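Researcher: Structure for this, please.
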Amino acid sequence: MAHPSSSSSQAAIFSPSVARAAASTAKDWSYVDSWLRSKYSSSSGSSRVPHFERNPETLKALLALAAANEAADENREQLARVEAQALDEVRAVEKERDAKRQRLQANVGYGEQVLDGELLASELLASLEAGLSKEGMTALDSMAGMAVELGVAYPTPESLGSKFVELQGRALEIEDSVERVDLLRRYLDREATRLEAFLSELRHGEAYQMAPNLAKQNLELQRKNKNMSAKLPELMQQVVWLEKAIGLPSLTVEDVRGDEEAYLELLARKKDLDAQVKAFAGLPPDVEAARIELEALRAELRDATEQRDSNFERLVERESPVKTRRRP
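Model: Predicted structure, C-alpha cell format:
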C-alpha cells in the first residue's frame, strides 16, 4: 500500500499544468543559453548561467535583454543595408558621370562640340560648392535643411523667412493654448481637491453620520405604520357612516368662486367703514359726551375763525396807505 504523501507528490509532479510550465521554462532557458553562447563564444569563461542564479527573476531579465539586443541588432542591420544601398546608388551615379565625362572628352578630341546639360549642371554645382567659404557652406546647409523641414520645393530667403515667421506665430499660439490648458488643468485640480474634501466630509463628518438610534426609530416607524394600516379599514368605515348620517356638502368651483367674491366685497366695505370710523377717533364712547365734546370743538373752531378774520382785517388796515382828503 502506497503512502498518501508519496501519491500526492507524484500527482503534483505529473500534473499537466506543472509539466507545461516546466517545459516552457526549460525552453526559455535553452533560448537564453544559446543567445549567451552566440554573444560570448570567444570569451574564455563559461557562457552558461550559474545554477544558483537560475530563478524566475533572472530568466525574465535575460529574456528582456535578449529581445532588446535582437531588436537593436535588427535596426543596426537595416541601417547598414540602407547605407550600403545609398552608397551603391552614389557610386553608380558617379560611375555614370565619369563615363559621360570620358565620352565628352573623347568627342572633343575628335573635334566635336557636345554639351551634356545634366553633367554641366552637376559640375557647376560642385564648383559653386567648392568655392563656398565655411560660413557660406554652413548657411547653405542650414537653408537646405530648413527647406526640407518646411517642405518647400524651390526655397528662397523670402519664402523661408515667411514660413519661419508663420511657424513662429503658430508656436506662440500653441504656447498660449498650452497656458490656457494648464490653467484649466489647475482649476480642475482645485475643484477635484475640493470635491474630494467634500466627499470625505460626507463620508466621515459627524453631521452626516447616521444617528445611533436610527435602527430603533426605523422599527418604531414601521410598527406605527403597521398599526395605522390595521386601523385604516375601521377609519374608512367611520367615514362612510358619517357620509350616510350627515351628508357631505356638494360644493363646486363656482360656489367657491362666489364665496370668494362675497368675501372680497366684505373686505372692501370694512375698509371704507374703518376709514369713516377713523375720523371720529378720540371721542368718548358715550353719545351725549361725544356730542358735548363736538360742540366744544365747533365753538373753538368758530373762535379761531373769528380771530383769524380780525387779524387779517388789522393786517390789511396797517398795510394799506392812508388817503388825504382835499380841501374845497
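Researcher: Any notable elements?
Model: The CA atoms of residues 240 and 247 lie 10 Å apart. The chain has nine helices and no strands.
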